[in-house]
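User: Thanks for the earlier help. One more: ATP synthase protein I. Can you show the sequence and predicted structure together?

Assistant: Of course, both are below.
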Amino acid sequence: MSSSTTGAAQPQRASGETPNPWLRLLCSCSLVSLVLAAAGSAAGGAVSGLAAAASVAAAVALVVVFFGITLLIGHVVGLRNPRAALGAFMFGYVVKVVGFGAVVFLLGTPAWVDAAWFIGASVGTVIAWQATEMIVFSRLRFQLYDDGAPDADSQERGAREAA
């Protein structure tokens, strides 16, 4: 039981679908990436200077943007048509690959980028993002069947069986 602002005990919801699962994934993964960016930039700045710190920050930002695109597409499509989520993720993957390739190959490498720190931060962020995604996804709840609202008779019967 949890208490409301009036002090009266309210029943706590024990089950049900996770609201906005793709935004939860995006927020969790972005938070982990932000922590990695701060730690990596501090380490890069202390060891190799400002270029390394900026390279770490740029690498993390690039990963967050392109991985976040997929989750945002999944969120928008999932709100309108949950059954189309898989197709949306496939589309998001294509956007991610093409967009990332365009950034890397068309824009080239800026002179200030420290390649070792950039690659290390990119790989580390992708691994951390994927691990966080798997952990958070494993805790999401999806309603597979439309069970409908329980009627008063079934609630009373369940309370008697529990007693």
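User: Great, one quick takeaway?

Assistant: The mean pLDDT is 82.
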